[in-house]
Amino acid sequence: MLCLPAAALAHSGEFAKFNYCPSTTTGVAHCLISVTNSGEIILGKKTTPIVNPVTLQGGYSEENSENFSTFYAATNGITLSKTKEPVPGGLLGIVPPESSPPLVKLLSKFFFENELTGINAVLELAKPASEIKLSNLNLELEEGIALKLPVKVHLENPFLGSSCYVGSSTSPLIWNLTTGVTNPLAPNKAISGKAGFVEIKEKFEIVQLNENSLVENAWSAPAASGCGGVLSFLVDPIIDTEIGLPATDGNNTAILNNTIDSATVGSVNAH
Amino acid sequence: MKSTRHIAVLALAVVALASAAMASAASAAPAWKFNGTELAGSETIVGAAISSKLTIPGATTECAHFLYNMKISNSAGTGKGEITELPLFECTASGSCTVESIAAEKLNWPTHLTTIAGKDYLIIENIRVGIKYSGSLCALSGTLTVVKGTAGGLIENETQTAKFNKTTFTATGTSLKVGSSSVEWEGLFPTEGFETHREQAIEG
Q1: pTM above 0.90, yes or no
Q2: What are the pLDDT digits (tens) for B50-71?
Q3: So what's the pLDDT on residue A189?
Q4: Which has the closest alpha carbon to B71: B178, B156, B157, B196?
Q5: Distance of alpha carbon B74 from alpha carbon B43, whole angstroms
Q6: Which of chain A's residues have a Cβ under 8 Å away from the Cβ of B94?
Q7: Burial tier of B148 (Cβ tally within 10 Å: 0-12, 13-18, 19+)
Q8: Neighbour-count burial for A121-160, b at 16+ CB within 10 Å, e otherwise
Q9: d(Cα B200, Cα B204) in Å, to the nearest integer?
C-alpha cells in the first residue's frame, strides 16, 4: 500500500504526478511538475552538468495583467528537489594563492588534497515559493522571462560543513530564465532556449511540453559563505578563488532542459 | 458589437459577389490578374472559408466563420498584398476546452505570390492568432495560446480558391507553430474581388 504524507492527495493514473500540488488551496488554478533531465550550471569557472533529475513542482495562479502567475509551494515542502549534482573534479586542484598565510595553505592541504574531495552542488530555493514567477505566455512565445527562480547553490562536502552556500535568502541567485534569446554581458554570448513541443494528453486535461529548454546567462553570483564551519573566514576565500567568485553578470550560465506537465486543479481534483 | 457588424458586412459581400478571376499566371513571379488582365492599382479581396480548422497536436479548433480581407497590388510584376482583417467567429475546440476568444493579432500580415513547381501559391507571413481556451478541465485554459508563423496556400484558378493544408505547407516550406510544435491548418477559401473588379465578377 502506498503511503503518502498527510498533506498529499492520492490522484490516479497520469494525475498521480500532481500528488503534491496544492490543488485545494485558494488561488491555485493549475498544477505543475517540471523535471530537469539535463543541462548545466556554470558558476564562475566551474561547470556542473545536470546528471540527476531536478524536480520543480507546485501550483500556480491565473496570470495577472502582465502575464505572470504566482507560484505555490508543493504540499510535501519539496517545491524544488534537493538533488545532488557531482561537480566534476571536485575540490582537487584547489591551490591557495602563494601569498596566503601558512595556516590557509595547511588547511587547503587538509581539506582538498585527500581522498574525500568529491563535492556535490545542490540547487535550493533561496526564497519562498511565492517568489517564483511563471509566464506561460512568454514561455510559449520564446520571448521575455518565462520563469523567475531565486536560488542558491549548496556545496556539499564533508570538510565544507553543512552551510557552504553560494547565494542566500538575502542575496539569492536570480535566474530570469527564458525560452528565447538571452542578452548577457561579455564574455558570455547570447544563447537561446526553446519552448518545446506541445503534447495534449488525457483528453485535453494534461499539457506536456517536451524538449523545453530554459536558459539564463546574465546573472551574477556573490561570494561563497559558511564553508568550513567556524573556519569559514579562511575557507570561503579559498572556495571563491577556486570557483571565481563573486562572479558578475556575463560569467555564469544556467541551462535547464525540461519536461513540463500541467493541468487545471479541476482536472487534478477530479482524478 | 463592432466586430460582429463587420463580419456581417464581409459575409454579405462574399455572398453577393460572383467569383472574380483573381489568380495569377504561372510564372516565376506571378502577378494578380482579373479576367486575364494584370491588376493595375490595388484591389481588395474578400474571402470566407468553405472549411477551416487548426490542429495543435491533439487539439482541434474549428471556426464556423473564418473570413479574410486582403489588399492586393502588383509590384514589378509580382503579386503582393497584406491581410488587413481576419475576423474569426463561432469557434469550437475538441475535448474539454471551449474557445473563449480567438483573434488575429498584429495585423497587417504581408502576403505575396510565388510559383513553385509550376503551381501558384499565396504566402502569408507574420501570422499570429491568439486563442484563449477555457474550461475547468481544459489544460490549455488560462493562458493565451498563440499560433504564429507563415502559411502557404495553393491558388487554384479553376475553382477560384486558395487551399491551405499540410501538402501546401510542405510545398512552400512554411509552417505555423505553437511553441516549437507545428500546427496544422486546413482551409479552403473562395476569393472574390470587392472594389474595382466587382462588376467584372458579376458579369462572369
Answers
A1: no
A2: 777 888 877 889 888 888 889 9
A3: 98
A4: B196
A5: 10
A6: 204
A7: buried
A8: bbbbbbbebebbbbbbbbbbbbebbbbbbbbbbbbbbebb
A9: 6
Determine phi and psi for B193, rounding to 5 degrees.
-75, 150
pLDDT tens for A220-268 read 999 999 999 998 998 899 899 889 999 999 999 999 999 999 999 999 9
Contact A63 B142 (CB under 8 A): yes
Give pairs for A62-69: CB < 8 Å, separation 24+.
Answer: A62/A29, A62/B142, A63/A135, A63/A136, A63/A137, A63/B142, A63/B143, A67/A135, A67/A136, A67/A137, A67/A138, A67/B143, A67/B144, A68/A133, A68/A134, A68/A135, A69/A29, A69/A30, A69/A133, A69/A134, A69/A135, A69/A136
Residue window 113-142, chain B: list those with CB within 8 Å of chain A.
Answer: 135-142
- Cβ proximity of B88 and B66 under 8 Å: yes
pLDDT tens digits, residue range B100-146? 999 999 999 999 999 999 999 999 999 999 999 999 999 999 889 99
C-alpha–C-alpha distance, residues A32 and B133, integer Å: 18
Q: What is the mean pLDDT of residues B24-40?
A: 71
Among partner residues B96, B141, B180, which is closest to A194 by beta-carbon distance? B180
**Which of A204, A209, A258 is best to mutate for the B interface (most B CBs within 10 A)?**
A204
Set of cell numbers at residue A27: 488561488
Task: Report d(CA A139, CA A121) in Å as an integer.
Answer: 27
Identify the weakest region by mean pLDDT among A71-80, A116-125, B165-174. Answer: A116-125
Distances in Å between the Cα of A15 and the Cα atoms of A199, B136, B172 are: 15, 15, 41
CA A176 – CA A181 distance, rounded (Å):
12
Of B58, B94, B139, the CB nearest to A267: B139
- Distance from the B179 Cα atom to the nearest Cα atom in chain A, whole angstroms: 5
